[in-house]
């Protein structure tokens, strides 16, 4: 399947109520319900981030937030990377990460990018030149690793 998503890239203040609701719903569907993590998703970082939303026929299928340097890490970061269950196996994850990296470079130039990745996705992120840069740690009972992508 070679579908392409319609991308919106917005500051927090540019998001409509409906867009914000769809973003929070998708993040809750995957991180809270599907992955059974009890955590506070509204972590007061969203207001400082840019939001990348991928839509297919008006439905939010993929999302990430671009976190400025100094908020989560010393480097810019891509966080809350999520694809809806209906959008998996469609290449949306790869499209999301490619567009996310493009947006980081658009905002911050060719820069090191750091992420906190779920361990089971290590090979996926490695295919985008991220390398493990920290020990395995538990976050919400899921194994994670810090990964870094050098400026390329």
From TrEMBL:
Keywords of the record: Transferase
Lineage, highest ranks first: Bacteria, Pseudomonadati, Bacteroidota, Cytophagia, Cytophagales
Name listed for the protein in its UniProt record: GNAT family N-acetyltransferase
InterPro entries, sorted: Acyl_CoA_acyltransferase, GNAT_dom
Top-level taxon in the UniProt lineage: Bacteria
A single MF term (Gene Ontology): acyltransferase activity, transferring groups other than amino-acyl groups
Keyword Chaperone: no
Occurrences of domain N-acetyltransferase (ranges): 10-152
Pfam families: Acetyltransf_10
């Amino acid at each position: 399947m070679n579908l392409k998503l319609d991308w919106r890239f917005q500051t927090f203040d540019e998001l409509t109520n409906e867009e914000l609701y769809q973003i929070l719903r998708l993040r809750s569907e995957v991180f809270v319900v599907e992955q059974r993590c009890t955590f506070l998703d509204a972590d007061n970082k969203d207001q400082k981030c840019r939001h990348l939303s991928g839509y297919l026929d008006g439905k939010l299928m993929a999302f990430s937030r671009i976190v400025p340097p100094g908020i989560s890490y010393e480097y810019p970061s891509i966080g809350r990377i999520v694809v809806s269950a209906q959008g998996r196996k469609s290449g949306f994850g790869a499209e999301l990460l490619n567009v996310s990296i493009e947006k980081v470079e658009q905002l911050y130039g060719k820069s090191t990018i750091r992420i906190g990745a779920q361990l089971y996705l290590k090979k996926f992120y490695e295919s985008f030149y991220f390398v493990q840069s920290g020990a395995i740690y538990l976050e919400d009972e899921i194994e994670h690793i810090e990964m870094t992508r050098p400026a390329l």
